[in-house]
Specification:
heterotrimer, A mainly beta (about 250), B mainly beta (about 575), C alpha/beta (about 325), A: about 250 residues, mainly beta, Immunoglobulin-like, six-stranded antiparallel β-sheet, 4 helices, about 10% helix, globular, B: about 575 residues, Methanol Dehydrogenase, Chain A
């Protein structure tokens, strides 16, 4: 009965993540292949504690906001985000280290697709969650707007940062100037930020992030860290052409 | 000079004549020359190396024993920044090579040296809508003309000696989605062409023109319900009957945007007097919107070239729901004293039909995995597996997306545009096949002029991690795969076979390869520097046998996700003509 | 129980499909003043069931012929609107105004092709530049209702000022804020204001091309007119200032919500999940329009906060 009700809601277009289970609640035909590709033979549970917040419809396919929210899931070691039906499936690979395990970012979406977070905890097990986003499409094969601006190189890898404190946590928001070209627009090679890390004043790495082509142009990220008061935060990273990112954010 | 070719001393005379190195004005290409193209060795006058499309040469200087000495004679760059897919089969006439390039360009080269004689670049509007890259598959020659089609759906006839435009005619409006990229063919004094644009809801048709003037002679639609016409000298048209019967295999008005594009052109057999044109998918892809067989989509249509009437048709995929275009070339050949035709269909089945009547002789899979049909019945009609047709979106509550199914072959087909070859010596067809599948689903769709008319979504998948492409020798008498050579990337170039006991083909990885036609043993390969998606040719000049192929990666290569991308996304573009001969 | 529910659902689907199959928008002119008629659309999103009939289109029967204000979401709508006009008058249409370049307001233009199609210059260029993409999207959302529809941009420019047609004294107001060009038509003869999408009532306003500051300024201008009756772009015809008040309330709320969210450091997908105030909870499409507005507008708020903070904190190496 319960399952029948669930399938009815599905049919009515409401995607509800039921209890933890092994069957893909997003019912995507790509999932079995992607599971094999990214997780190999490792078991995975669809876990309601893994939440992907995203609009139902991508109003702007070049900038689809996504927040991965992981409440109540202990000891998160790794967060992989993928979009099943994007021509480049993998979006980012996040190691929270000392940071909180959730994060926010924006992506390019080529067509309607599930966006999934695959989360590995300290015991090695994988937990998955996701949301369908409908899209008219074309986000990945359009050239970046920065590409047509002649001075993209002048502002390349410039970082804007801002921190909000609440005594327990601090939220770090970064905006990095970068075209993030996918290589799929004719005649424009792939050009994207490959990795980012946040370090504290002592040089200790607080979080590490690998990023891929589907991240939106001039990416904006939000991370949540333990509040370290007035201590400096350092943003380091590089793109696939070896251009360095190195900036300090003063909370 | 053309007349001399058929005498035994012709090659001597040709040698002597060419030795003078004076490019004389020569007699033009005649209908007889064209009908004899498969037998003549010092030229290539037709797409298919003979209008029957066997791609077989009687030359044997290059053979299993001598091929180890095959080395480059020259290479020519198509130049510019326009290095997209090069699917062209060159022609060789009177020591001149005519090869078309991407972006509707045509080059005339000295066939012996690669020296450029002239080039023609067609000015293309920005709004052209080629479905699958800016390719062209080759030209036709007639009299003193070389004739080719353009991406904005025009035909251009150039003077073989000067490259000047002699005539130019418009096939249709590119703004409605029409284009054309196949090689025109000459059949019994007529220039036959098709149309491309099946993804835009255009109407497929075959047109016959006077090759010397470009004036229309007759037109035959390949969507059931449309009227055919013939034309008088002043261009006035009169009706010559509807193709089929209105609403017999289509419901409502759907036949008015029915697709069935004749985008790969056709073949012609002088023995039957019939031109064989393959037709593409019915529009839109979503088959639930168009119940019925949707004639003459996904078919071979045999047209009497004298009258412009359809003599017979054979439909491989009635009510197609997988984009299994039936455009693949119908290659006629002799089998047990009867004139037959072979076709390796995009849907994964190889058909052997009576070339005169279209009667189904036999059919069998030439790929290892076919999900959409359980087999063929005694008339060659597929026995569908209803569970493996993408679901009807109107049967789903929100009506947006029907049930997704896995289908093999993928929409790119067991075989696509790359032409196969037939060797009368071995009695085998050499088929460039691909093993892949797809996840496919249907969506609702409304026809909008000039907009893609699909109503389907898909992701393409590999079936075997080790390979997609498979060059296969197939026995038309038994359906047996005699040998195969697998290839990591999908095969997308055509095939040629020779009396020297060889089969030649190119790979996306850039190798031009040769194998023993009997055993499939690879005996030679050469890296050309970019992917090959075009068929090779051979001819003889001054006593030497030449092999040539256009190179340049591209074609219908969409943004394949997942495992297929890994096999192709590292391949680089190019654009060159490569010519080989034996080291002396 | 479940079986019955399913069959009910199927029945409902079949009924809708049957209705949609003859593509009849069921347009019935409602008189709002002397000579003045409105075709009221549903306060829904565009679907394959409603064919995009979510908009109010109007016409005024003057002595010299009919003035049309907005032509609806499709060629079919335009043609059926013409037939609806013929139900109340045998006079010819002499002028069409398009209030702005959104597709539900002008894709019926093809039906009035022989009539001067008139819009503000910013609207004309918007139709030319984005009309094709708008039409594609409308095909995607409404399906076969759109058959034969192509974007037909207004060819004549409208300018602010008075126009007298057949005894009706129209004041054209060249405003903006909902889009870069918003034409409001005020019939001083009847006191009816055709506000286009500057005014929504009981249907959440849309913001894909909006400037909140300009929009609020335009509402100020409209609120000073001696209006007896208002025809909003979407929602019911009304005689008081409710439409202006509610539209302004929504815009103010968006502005305040986005400003506060940005100051608190929320990211876009988090903002989309913020609760609606009770007064908007029951408003049709409030949740989905709010979600869309985050994409349209929030980036600027976020950037402003980043800019002011970053000036102090950023040390670029």
């Amino acid at each position: 009965m319960k399952r029948l009700m669930a399938s009815l809601t599905m049919a009515l277009g409401v995607v509800a993540i039921a209890c933890a289970s092994d069957a893909d609640p997003l019912k995507s035909s790509r999932w079995p292949d992607l599971q094999r590709q990214y997780l190999g033979e490792a078991p995975v549970t669809f876990d309601p504690r893994v939440e992907v917040l995203a609009p139902k419809v991508a109003e702007d396919s070049m900038n689809v906001p996504v927040t991965v929210k992981l409440q109540g899931l202990p000891d998160v070691r790794r967060v992989m985000v993928i979009a099943d039906y994007n021509p480049i499936v993998k979006i980012l690979d996040y190691q929270p280290l000392l940071a909180r395990p959730g994060l926010s970012f924006r992506i390019k979406l080529q067509q309607a697709s599930p966006i999934r977070a695959l989360v590995q905890t300290g015991d090695g097990s994988w937990h998955a969650g996701g949301a369908w986003v409908d899209a008219a499409g074309g986000g990945c094969t359009a050239p970046s707007t920065g590409r047509s601006a002649p001075d993209w190189a002048r502002t390349l890898n410039q970082v804007q940062g801002r921190v909000w404190h609440d005594g327990l946590n601090q939220r770090l928001r970064l905006r990095i100037m970068h075209p993030m070209d996918t290589g799929l627009a004719p005649g424009i090679p792939a050009f994207y930020i490959e990795n980012l890390a946040i370090e504290d004043a002592q040089g200790q790495t607080l979080l590490k992030l690998e990023t891929f082509e589907p991240i939106s142009e001039n990416p904006v990220f939000s991370f949540d860290l333990p509040d370290t008061g007035e201590a400096l935060l350092r943003v380091v990273g590089r793109d696939n052409n070896g251009n360095r990112i190195d900036a300090k954010v003063q909370p | 000079m053309k007349g001399l070719r058929r005498t035994t001393i012709s090659s001597l005379l040709v040698t002597a004549f060419a030795a003078l190195a004076v490019p004389q004005v020569m007699a033009g290409v005649t209908d007889r020359d064209i009908e004899n193209d498969a037998k003549s060795t010092n030229d290539v006058l037709t797409w298919g190396m003979g209008t029957e499309g066997q791609r077989y040469s009687t030359l044997d200087k290059i053979n299993v024993k001598t091929i180890k000495n095959l080395v480059p004679a020259w290479s020519f760059s198509f130049g510019g920044e326009k290095q997209r897919g090069q699917e062209s089969q060159p022609l060789v006439v009177n020591g001149k090579m005519f090869v078309t390039g991407s972006y509707s360009r045509l080059f005339a080269l000295d066939a012996k040296t690669g020296h450029k004689l002239w080039q023609y670049e067609h000015r293309l509007p920005d709004g052209i809508m080629p479905c699958c890259d800016v390719i062209n598959r080759g030209a036709a020659v007639y009299d003193n003309l070389v004739i080719f089609s353009t991406l904005d759906a025009q035909l251009v006839a150039l003077d073989q000696n000067t490259g000047k435009v002699v005539w130019k005619e418009k096939i249709d409006e590119y703004t409605a989605g029409y284009s054309f990229s196949a090689a025109p063919i000459i059949a019994n004094g007529l220039l036959l062409t098709g149309v491309s644009g099946g993804e835009f809801g255009i109407i497929g048709r075959v047109e016959a023109r006077d090759p010397k003037t470009g004036k229309m002679v007759w037109m035959r639609p390949t969507v059931e319900g449309h009227m055919g016409y013939k034309y008088d000298a002043d261009g006035n048209k009169t009706e010559i009957g509807i193709s089929g019967t209105v609403n017999a295999s289509w419901q409502g008005d759907l036949w008015k945007t029915g697709g069935a594009a004749t985008w790969l052109g056709g073949t012609y057999d002088a023995k039957t007097g019939l031109a064989y044109f393959g037709t593409g998918n019915p529009a839109p892809w979503n088959s639930h919107t168009r119940p019925g067989d949707n004639l003459y989509s996904c078919s071979t249509v045999a047209i009497d070239v004298k009258t412009g009437q359809i003599k017979w048709h054979f439909q491989g995929t009635p009510n197609d729901g997988w984009d299994y275009d039936g455009v693949n070339e119908f290659v006629t050949f002799d089998l047990n004293g009867k004139r037959m035709g072979g076709k390796a269909d995009r849907n994964g089945f190889f058909y052997v039909l009576d070339a005169n009547s279209g009667k189904f002789e036999r059919g069998f899979p030439f790929v290892k995995k076919i999900t959409w049909a359980k087999g063929l019945d005694e008339n060659g009609r597929p026995i569908y597996d209803p569970a493996n047709r993408p679901g009807d979106p109107s049967k789903v509550a929100d009506g947006k997306k029907g049930e997704t199914v896995f289908s093999a072959p993928s929409f790119l087909g067991g075989k696509n545009q790359m032409p196969m070859a037939y060797n009368p010596g071995t009695g085998l067809f050499y088929v460039p096949a691909n093993e892949w599948g797809m996840e496919i689903w249907n969506e609702p769709i409304t026809y909008k002029k000039g907009a893609a008319y699909l109503g389907a979504g898909f992701t393409i998948k590999t079936i075997d991690d080790k390979y997609i492409g498979a060059m296969r020798a197939i026995d038309p008498k038994t359906g047996k795969i005699v040998w195969e050579v697998t290839n990591n990337a999908p095969l997308w170039g055509g095939v040629m076979t020779t009396k020297g006991g060889l089969v030649f083909w190119g790979t996306p990885e850039g190798f031009l390869k040769a194998a023993d036609a009997k055993t499939g043993k690879e005996v030679w390969s050469f890296q050309t520097g970019t992917g090959i998606v075009a068929p090779p040719i051979t001819w003889e000049q001054d006593g030497e046998q030449y092999i040539a192929v256009a190179t340049g990666w591209g074609g219908a290569v969409p943004l394949w996700g997942g495992d297929v991308a890994k096999k192709v996304n590292y391949l680089n573009q190019g654009g060159s003509m490569w010519v080989f001969k034996l080291l002396k | 129980m479940i079986a019955r529910l399913v069959s009910l659902l199927l029945l409902a689907g079949a009924a809708l499909a049957a209705h949609a199959a003859d593509f009849d928008y069921g347009l019935r002119p409602q008189q709002v003043a002397e000579d003045s008629w409105v075709l009221i659309g549903r306060t829904e999103d565009i679907t394959r069931q409603n064919g995009g009939n979510i908009v109010n289109a109007s016409f005024v029967v003057t002595r010299d012929g009919v003035v049309v204000i907005d032509t609806g979401p499709s060629r079919r709508y335009g043609e059926q609107m013409k037939a609806a006009i013929a139900m109340v008058t045998d006079r010819q249409v002499v002028r069409v105004f398009n209030t702005h370049h959104h597709p539900d307001h002008f894709l019926g233009n093809q039906a009035f092709d022989s009539v001067p199609l008139t819009a503000l210059p910013a609207t004309q260029s918007g139709m030319r530049e984005q009309g094709g993409a708008f039409a594609d999207n409308m095909y995607r959302m409404a399906g076969d209702w759109l058959t034969g529809t192509e974007a037909d941009a207004a060819r004549e420019s409208a300018h602010a000022g008075r126009v007298s047609i057949g005894g009706h004294d129209f004041e054209l107001l060249a405003l903006d804020g909902h889009t870069a060009g918003d034409l409001a038509v005020f019939d001083r003869t009847t006191g009816v204001l055709y506000a286009g999408d500057l005014i929504f009532l009981d249907r959440a306003p849309t913001t894909p091309h909006a400037s909140l500051a300009h929009w609020r300024h335009s509402l100020d201008v409209l609120s000073r007119l001696p209006v007896k009756r208002t025809v909003p772009g979407h929602g019911p015809v009304h005689d008081d200032g409710r439409g202006i008040a509610q539209t302004r309330d929504w815009l103010d709320w968006l502005d305040a919500t986005f400003g506060r969210a940005a100051a608190e450091g929320l990211d876009m997908a988090e903002v989309m999940r913020l609760p609606l105030p009770p007064r908007f909870e029951g408003m049709p499409l409030a949740r989905s329009e709010f979600e869309r507005s985050v994409t349209h507008l929030y980036g600027a708020y976020e950037q402003q906060v980043m800019n002011t903070a970053a000036q102090r904190h950023l040390q670029q190496k």
